[in-house]
Predict the 3D structure of the following.
Amino acid sequence: MIIMPDKKTWPVSITPDNYPEFISTSSEHLTRKGSDLAGYFEEEPEPDTVIYEVFEAETVGHIKMAMTVLKPGKVGNEFHMTKGHFHEDDKAGEVYVCFKGQGMIVMQTKEGQTDELRLTPGALAYIPPGWAHRTINTGTEDFIMLATYPETAGHDYGPIQEKGFIKRVVEINGQVQVV
Ligand code: PAN
Ligand code: ZN
């Protein structure tokens, strides 16, 4: 079963069974290792450890799609996570759909409001415009989710890279805690 016969212009349905084909037919592939996340965790990650990969589909028009595969693991007591970013366009929201694993999304506004949601397979998370967002793998297997967002969104990493998120997701006494 090929889910993207013409990757750009053919309608597709991405399901819990066929999502690996999205990964294998994606046009852009990005790998983020510990060295790319220097300064993001409270402790420094092993430079060569792969923390996550992003697979982007070739699309035309106003909607982009990217699948993130976030590897299980911790740096110190902090669960593996993405860098996190604001969108450059403060009118650009985003939708995440979880396909595999156990995770969380933490969000915050420039004014300091914070929120977090748990994501399990089948769950959809809506990220309103103006909210920075980061995903965290709180489980023991890959955490895989698909993001859809406007092509004009743009990614602004600066504020999070400089100051981090207000909330961190850590393991304390074997429990997932947002601190
Ligand atoms: C996602 C993210 C992806 C990687 O596709 O870009 O999960 O996270 P970072 O970009 O924060 O490293 C998304 O939110 N796109 O807008
Ligand atoms: Zn985003």
About this structure: Residues 19-178 form a domain with the Jelly Rolls fold (CATH 2.60.120.10). The longest strand covers residues 63-70.
